[in-house]
Predict the 3D structure of the following.
Amino acid sequence: TQLLEQSPQFLSIQEGENLTVYCNSSSVFSSLQWYRQEPGEGPVLLVTVVTGGEVKKLKRLTFQFGDARKDSSLHITAAQPGDTGLYLCATRLTGTASKLTFGTGTRLQVTL
Amino acid sequence: NAGVTQTPKFQVLKTGQSMTLQCAQDMNHEYMSWYRQDPGMGLRLIHYSVGAGITDQGEVPNGYNVSRSTTEDFPLRLLSAAPSQTSVYFCASSYSIWTAGDDNSPLHFGNGTRLTVT
């Protein structure tokens, strides 16, 4: 059973479209992170959300942490080909600050 | 800036062979970890270390050994490779275990080692 479920698994859109990807769990988290991974590279941290209901913006990317701290979403406005990659959410298991667990990821393809 | 360096980038092994995946970081990070990435399964934690001389198991430790003799290096050993260990392996580090992954101390990843076991 996966602690973090991400949806959709795959998304193929055209440049300029908007999209939202989701990260869900039945557990409550103290914080949640989003990473982006490009082909042939390791994941890179985009943002950490900590407070229930928190919204963080990173240029055209908007991250939201659910009020109950059991889910999160990533919204991209006017997607560009440079947004192509694998988007991963991650959190630390309760009582194990040193273990970061990842979701299965959403693979995004943005075409011209 | 080198960051986290993994070698080799690609490796093919035969079943039963042994090998060591190298990981080095030049950021003086206390925390280092190894993940494997398989299609549809995200990243799974193999082993981690919170400082020199200290290691612990993650979610999928079987078939892998680690040691941490210096702050900089955290090698991953496969003692007897199996086809189920075919995967992409990532090493990651962070300044502190208590803030691993937080904005002020993000997890830094290497570019991975693609391992095939035939």
